[in-house]
Amino acid sequence: MKKLLILLAAAALSAGTATAQTANPTPRSANGRPEPATPEQLADRLTQQLTLSADQRKQIVILEQARRLEMQTRRGQMQSGGDRTAMRQTMQTARDKYDTQLKSILTADQYSQYTQLREERADNRGSRKMKMKTKG
Prior knowledge:
mainly alpha, 5 helices, 136 residues, single chain
């Protein structure tokens, strides 16, 4: 009887471990960070959160693709020895431009909701960083 209970317990533990190992983890890039969402995934998330129209979704995909291309170009400039202070300023200008374009796509209520969601994400990132600092 004891052997049967031990065997069942071992089987249950190994089944749980095997299941945990086969879960689909978040795809990671070479530096260990999660892969960023594609423009389409971002538009899908915003469509769900802000109830966007099909036209708004298309415009956001196009806007996000253009933003990523511009950021990639700027990162290349930075890696080739650009001035960090000037680069920070141009990145801030690019973010402001993105926000202005996004504001023209979204309704006032949607943009208000978007800024609120963005602030919540920033707060969550800050609290995660604090947890990591206290652990290490």
